[in-house]
Amino acid sequence: MPNDRSILHVDMDAFFAAVEQHDHPELRGKPVIVGAPANQRGVVATCSYEARVFGVHSAMPSHEAFQRCPQAIFVPPDMPRYAAISRQVFAIFERFTPLVEPVSIDEAFLDVSGSKRLFGEPEVIAACIRAAIQAEMGLTASVGVAGNKFLAKLASESSKPDGLTVVPRERAGVLDFLAPLPVGRLWGVGKVMRELLENHNYRVIGDIQRASEASLAAVVGRHVANHLLHLAFGEDEREIETESEEKSISREHTFSVDCRDPEHMRAVLRDLADDVGRHLREIGKFAAVGRLKLRWSDFQTLTRQRTFPLPVCDDFTLRRLALELFEAEPRILPVRLIGFGVSGFAAERHEQLSLFADPAERRDRDEKLCRTVDGLRTKLGRDQIVRADAVGRIHKS
């Protein structure tokens, strides 16, 4: 297990709520929920620790959060403000190392292996970063220090809120740190995998450490077993990625009232597909896979996806696939949310030979038309461009 790297995982504590409490002193010490109001459809973006003691958490429906904590103060998100604070936080990171990998607006991995001569040991650097965030922004951060990303993230999670945890470098110390943690803390283990492991008496990471690869493979398969064993022994070779690139694009729409009107859903889906296509063209990518998302009124969610014959970026092809996936799905319950996304990006497209009429001419025409419309939107404004669909309805495009 390599021990020459020094990785920090820095995670701001209840970031959105903490910013609101900092900017509005009257909110300090009170249960604050950032997200949709309790009387509207929507979810909790984050909440203060005062609200968490009542069982409120991110992604919880706002009405449920209100039921758990009726005295909570609901605050709408102020994303420009949070983004501005995030830039200040990341500027602090960059004082200590250029090797910063953003994970989200409020957390990052830092490789400080080369910074020790200037700033001291990794735990000293971590303490300096926490102190700077507190002094300059009045906010707190939890930091994990370890020899790799997996261990550093686990360490920061164990520090929350406002803490600093250093994972030992020697193998015995790493195993002792990991052993009592639940298997759900292993990277890549979701709810289904966790339940499967627990049903076979793998409840904590120590159980994985004591397992043979053969016995574990009998439960989860050889590839997954190998992955879990590496993590259970604290092994993670992932490097810091300083340049993050989008790996998927998706757009969703939540209906204010659960929708039963298929034509209205089709119209929304076309707009979502167009928005995805616009973003694809902006970043100069082609997508290989399209994906439909539906959430029913009972909160059950399904996704359906299909590969394009060739990677695409034009609205016409994206719409066709989105609608084909939609039409193929029986709609028994009203729909709460509908979404469309793409993945499998390529910077260029490799042509395929066809025995039939060459589709390239139509595809190139469609792409050219979409790019022309993009230019008109930029010049005239998005609301000035409308689309007429097959049934004669007019949609702002």
Record keyword descriptors for this entry.
single chain, 397 residues, alpha+beta, DNA polymerase, domain 1, Dna Ligase, domain 1, 5-stranded mixed sheet, 4-stranded antiparallel sheet, 14 strands, 42% helix, disordered C terminus
Describe the SSE topology.
Layout: E1 7-12, H1 15-23, E2 32-35, E3 44-47, H2 49-52, H3 62-68, E4 73-75, H4 79-96, E5 100-104, E6 107-111, H5 116-119, H6 122-137, E7 141-146, H7 149-159, E8 164-166, H8 171-178, H9 191-199, H10 205-209, H11 213-220, H12 222-232, E9 248-259, H13 262-283, E10 286-296, E11 301-312, H14 315-327, E12 335-346, H15 360-380, E13 386-388, E14 394-396
Parallel strand pairs: 2-4, 7-8
Antiparallel strand pairs: 1-6, 1-7, 2-3, 5-6, 9-12, 10-11, 10-12, 13-14
Helix pairs in contact: 4-6, 11-12, 13-14
What can you tell me about this protein's structure?
There is one protein chain. With 397 residues, the protein is of the alpha+beta class. The chain is built from 15 helices and 14 strands. Strand 7, helix 7 and strand 8 form a beta-alpha-beta unit. Helix 4 packs antiparallel against helix 6 and helix 11 packs across helix 12.
The coarse silhouette is globular
Reported for the largest beta sheet, the result is:
5 strands, mixed
Give the low-pLDDT segments. Answer: 350-358, 390-397
CATH class of one domain: Alpha Beta
CATH superfamily of one domain: DNA polymerase, Y-family, little finger domain
- Tally of strands: 14
Helix content, binned percent: 40-55%
Number of helices, counting only DSSP H or I runs of 4 residues or more: 15
- The average pLDDT is 88
Please list the strands of the largest sheet in the order they lie side by side: 5-6-1-7-8
Percent of sequence in beta strands: 15-25%
Rg to the nearest angstrom? 25 Å
Quote the distance from N terminus to C terminus. 54 Å
The H/E string reads EHEEHHEHEEHHEHEHHHHHEHEEHEHEE
At CATH level 2, the architecture of one domain is 2-Layer Sandwich
CATH topology-level fold name of one domain: Dna Ligase, domain 1
Structural class: alpha+beta
